[in-house]
Design goal:
By secondary structure, the chain is an alpha+beta fold. Helix content is 20%, strand content 26%.
Length: 246
């Protein structure tokens, strides 16, 4: 019975405090919110005291669950850095053709037009080299000599090496190219290399890296002096008639 009476008494007490506080706030100029706050605090204190007197324990505050950080590490994705491929240095060895044979040529001599040969402007000429098949591949159909660099001098893009005849390793052949001297005086040079049927390029010794070339000097034509004919003197003989004596 006492337990039921106490809450009713507290409610009445809180209501009385609110009425008294409201009246007092008008006299003192306090805001109603301050009065309500004071009444609430008083009621809370009385309830706490009642709980202690009755031997009831205050309910323990409910623990707010704390988020536990996920300890699992996020896997890191390794990023591969692509590096540009390093260009290989050109080999100083002879070119290896399919079938494990070696492509190489060897210069023997200039058959025509030695280096520095003087030609007239626009003069047509034929350059011939003698070379040897210095590799282990047989030069057959599709093997060519092609213009590489320098002064082309009206040379064709390429000429055949074999002319329908297979050139075995160690064989000497003559290769000719028809050219035309430039019209301006000066020194000119054109370089040529070899190519197999699949397009692999090779040259002459050393190490099949060199080229065969033609080198000429164009000189202006020297005018031939013209000698004027010498006049032959003409001798005129006049006969004088003498008077005869009587």
């Amino acid at each position: 019975m006492r337990k039921k009476f106490v809450p009713i008494l507290l409610v009445l007490l809180v209501g009385l405090l609110l009425i008294v506080g409201a009246c007092k706030s008008k006299a003192d100029g306090d805001s109603p919110e301050a009065v309500y706050t004071q009444a609430a605090l008083t009621a809370e204190a009385l309830l706490t005291k009642r709980a202690v007197d009755s031997g009831e324990e205050e309910p323990a505050p409910t623990a707010t669950p704390t988020e536990i950080a996920d300890s699992t590490a996020t896997p890191r994705t390794a990023t591969a850095t692509l590096r540009p491929e390093t260009e290989e240095e050109p080999s100083n060895t002879a070119t290896t053709a399919p079938g494990s044979c070696t492509l190489a040529a060897s210069f023997v001599k200039d058959v025509t037009i030695d280096d520095g040969t003087q030609l007239r402007p626009g003069e047509a000429f034929t350059k011939t080299w003698q070379v040897m098949n210095a590799g282990t591949c047989t030069w057959g159909s599709g093997y060519t000599l092609f213009f590489l660099s320098g002064d082309q001098m009206s040379a064709p893009a390429s000429v055949s090496l074999s002319s329908g005849i297979d050139v075995a390793p160690g064989t000497l052949i003559n290769i000719s190219v028809d050219l035309v001297a430039p019209v301006e005086p000066g020194e000119y040079r054109g370089d040529f290399k070899f190519k197999d049927a699949s397009g692999k390029v090779f040259g002459i010794n050393p190490n099949a890296a060199g080229s065969v070339y033609v080198k000429i000097a164009v000189v202006a034509a020297t005018p031939t002096p013209t000698t004027a004919p010498t006049a032959t003197p003409t001798v005129t003989v006049e006969a004088t008639a003498e008077d005869s004596l009587p």
